[in-house]
Amino acid sequence: MRPVPVPTASPYDAVVVGAGPNGLAAAIRLAEAGQRVAVFEANETAGGGVRSMALTRPGFVHDFGAAVFPLGVGSPFFRRLPLARYGLEWIHPPLPLAHPLDGGRAALLSRSLDETAAGLGRDGGGYRRLAAPVVRAWPALEREVLRPMLHVPRHPVALARFGLRALLPPERLGAWAFRGEAAKALWAGVAAHAVRPFSAPGASAIGLTLLALAHRVGWPAPRGGAGALTAALVAHLRALGGEVVTSRPVTHLDGLPPARAVLLDVSPRALLRLAGDRLPGRYRRAIAGFRPGPGTFKLDWALDGPIPWAHPGVARAGTVHLGGTLEEIAASEAAVDAGCPPERPYVLLGQPSLFDPTRAPEGKHTAWAYCHVPNGSTADMADAIEAQVERFAPGFRARILARHAFSPAALEAADANLVGGDLTGGENDLWQLTARPVLHPNPYRTPLDGVYICSASTPPGGGVHGMCGYHAANAALRDMLG
Questions:
Q1: With contact defined as beta carbons under 8 Å apart, do 450 and 261 qualify?
Q2: ∠427-28-69 over CA atoms, to 5°?
């Protein structure tokens, strides 16, 4: 398939729709190859789900969507870009992760695998058996898992070893590795990032990946907020000669300037809207059947002081998983899968101002938390989320100065790619991880000449790594340059 030639008078070789991290990555890759590129973004600011906002009170900096970036700092594409030149600085908290338990206890995950294992007592050996092989093999594995599943592996042995564990449901893998409550809970918290039931095959892959990244590169955040990563990407693109045009919604492909390639950092649903009847029926039906994942309900807080955790070690962690035991977290994710908002939700919480004083006025703090809910849910989860924080940090509510809530509908209104509040770009079951958004060796190409999709609804899926855009841009370059 070859893109349709355009008149030589066209100002662009390629046009990208959507200035999220994947759209910007695609544009940068194209510009690196000498192509004239423009990115059109509907919102007033670039970034998509990677933006910082003033949501509560003056002086408090909050992140709209993504806030912690293990895949960002570990991305094979992002890490080769000179983003520090444009002000990007990664802040690493003393601990990537903490998982508090009732009774003032907590499981703590350190950058050191040995230190983490030692803190788990009798389950330390099980933690090493679970995490160490993935940590050791990660330099080879990242080349396999951060690309389409349908490919000839360069490291088949490492991939097979990873796959044997990744295919196990989280509840079975946790039972194999651990005996104690703390280690099982720590595993449950990272496994739940898959937003899948704990009985689902393949749902352990994301948890294993996050463990490997925690020990390899950490779970950092950009100084000044997530928007600093977007600002650095935009600045680098402009230094390469690319353009970023904000407040420029695109309602149809025909409304774009002529270009040899059009790359769409949009959801499959938006692709249908943009392309209309130009898509062949079979492809159109496949795209229409692509399922979004569960939704998200998110809170941001301005606080009068740090969160008063019952276990002091939790204050050393940038990310905190709340929800208690593996059984409790499994029940929460099962409720979401069944279409019910959980009564005691699994909660992901960040406390960035403990490690980055630019996020709040002196003596004050910011924090955020979210839980999974059914896609498009209208349930107000604020009280349930705050109850989980209060459970492990008595006195938390007394420190709230202001709060801001994002329902699934509000998240989608602020970023159209977050369909029904889905942060992952589509449900993460085995079929949709393979057929993302369709089953094809090159899933970035659409049947339309010169039109590609590069959002998180393409491989390797959700997470701020830019690899969807990078791979889509390479597909376009192969067609453009022959």
A1: yes
A2: 50
Supply the DSSP symbol for 338.
Answer: T
- Do residues 134 and 208 touch, judged by C-beta distance below 8 A? yes
Q: Are the C-beta atoms of 385 and 297 separated by less than 8 Å?
A: yes
Residue 359: strand, helix, or coil: helix
The Cα–Cα gap between 205 and 167 comes to 7
In the numeric block, which tokens belong to residue 26? 């695609």
pLDDT digits (tens, 9 = 90+) for 4-17: 455 456 799 999 99
Is residue 358 scored above 80 in pLDDT?
A: yes
- What is the number of alpha carbons within 13 Å of residue 26 lying toward its C-beta? 37
**The predicted structure's pLDDT at residue 277:** 83
Output the six-digit token pair for 89: 């600085």
Residue 1 has pLDDT above 50, yes or no: no
β-bridge pairing 365-373 and 295-303: antiparallel
Both tokens assigned to 229: 């990563």
Could you give the residue ranges of the DSSP H alpha helices within 33-169? Answer: 70-74, 113-119, 124-145, 156-166
Beta strands in 304-390 (DSSP E): 317-322, 347-350, 365-373
Q: How far, CA to CA in Å, does 17 sit from each of 23, 24, 46, 250, 262?
A: 7, 10, 11, 7, 8
Contact indicator for 366, 302 with CB cutoff of 8 Å? yes
What residues pair up with 372 in beta bridges, in sequence order?
Answer: 296
Q: How many CB atoms lie within 10 A of CB 91?
A: 18
pTM of the full predicted structure? 0.96
Q: Is the distance from CB of 337 to CB of 427 less than 8 angstroms?
A: no
Percent of the chain with pLDDT over 70: 98
- Could you tell me if 271 and 426 are in contact, meaning their C-beta atoms sit under 8 angstroms apart? no
CA distances from 245 to 35, 44, 139, 233, 258 (A): 17, 9, 36, 14, 16
Question: Which residue blocks in 265-350 are alpha helix, DSSP H?
Answer: 268-275, 281-288, 326-337
Task: Please give the C-alpha separations between residue 480 and each of 30, 152, 160, 315, 450, in angstroms, as whole numbers.
Answer: 10, 24, 35, 51, 8
DSSP assigned state of 8: T
User: Smallest Cα–Cα separation from 460: which of 440, 429, 480, 433?
Assistant: 433
